[in-house]
Amino acid sequence: MAILELQNVGYSYSGNVKNAKKVLSGLNYEFDKGVVYSITGRSGAGKTTLLSLLSGLTTPTEGKVMFDEKDLSTLDRYDYRSQQVGVVFQQFNLLPHLTVLENIILSMDASKKKFDRPKKEIALEMLNEVDLDESYANKRILKLSGGEQQRVAIARTLSFDPEVILADEPTGNLDLTTQDEIMSIFTKLAHEENRCVIIVTHSPEVAKLSDKVFNLAPLKKGAKVR
Ligand SMILES: Nc1ncnc2c1ncn2[C@@H]1O[C@H](COP(=O)(O)OP(=O)(O)OP(=O)(O)O)[C@@H](O)[C@H]1O
Ligand SMILES: [Mg+2]
């Protein structure tokens, strides 16, 4: 059973008004747990837009996004966003003056989820999952390299144990070796922990390392609603 499903999904910026800019149309696709997906496509094809539909940040103007067989637009999207789905951004969105541990615990607090162990203990375990040892816990974000910051961003996402992980160009700023290391973390999260991992990428290497590739073809230039 698919964890996320696109049912005839379309999206126009500024809704259904005349001259609205149609970015996505008629998308049907299923995303399963245990699988790493890459979403590829030219710049402007609508990849980030699709990710924001999958993350519940925006609702489609046509069709439905189904999560666990339920229409996402009918669910509490705050709960969905803070508990079921973890989003990793290219720019990490970490708070630079706080420490690694503070950044992770902040997002655990924000999720309002009940944790069965002290948050600090879970946070340290998540660091271990992304191959950062405990000595990183009290370092400030601004003292870390790009690859280390990306690991912290992933650890932060994992801290509330989401079933789905969405990442927008997570390796865009990283060298090839670091890119491979980050990809092996994502692969482990899907294959060993049965999460659904969806990565937007321009990188052919990242696409090659994922299990399935979903290529987004751009709509015809100037496509208008109706
Ligand atoms: N807030 C917005 N209002 C209007 N149009 C937008 C908005 N955001 C994006 N667009 C347009 O929608 C189209 C798709 O944008 P999107 O950011 O989803 O593309 P992308 O595939 O992620 O591109 P890139 O690879 O460059 O990140 C683009 O033509 C963009 O100009
Ligand atoms: Mg984008």
Task: Extract low-pLDDT stretches.
Answer: 222-226
Helical segment tally?
Answer: 7
What is the CATH superfamily label?
Answer: P-loop containing nucleotide triphosphate hydrolases
| Assembly state of the chains shown | single chain
Rough outline: globular
DSSP summary, beta strand count? 9
> Biggest β-sheet: count, sense, barrel?
5 strands, parallel
H/E topology pattern? EEEHEEHEHHHEHEHE
Query: Beta-strand level of the residues, as a percent range?
Result: 15-25%
Brief rundown of the structure:
The chain is α/β, with parallel strands linked by helices. The chain has helices spanning about 45-55, 75-85, 100-110, 120-130, 145-160, 175-190, 205-210; strands at about 5-15, 20-30, 35-40, 60-65, 70, 85-90, 165-170, 195-200, 210-215.
Describe the structure.
There is one protein chain. The chain is an alpha/beta fold. It has a single domain, classed as 3-Layer(aba) Sandwich (Rossmann fold). Helices cover about 35% and strands about 25% of the residues. Strands 6-7-8-3-9 form a five-stranded parallel beta sheet, with helices on both faces. A hairpin with a 2-residue loop joins strand 4 and strand 5 (about 70). Helix 3 crosses helix 4 (about 120-130), helix 3 (about 100-110) runs parallel beside helix 5 and helix 4 packs across helix 5. The longest helix is centred in the last third of the chain and has 16 residues, at about 175-190. Residues about 220-225 have low confidence and may be disordered. It binds adenosine-5'-triphosphate (ATP) and magnesium ion.
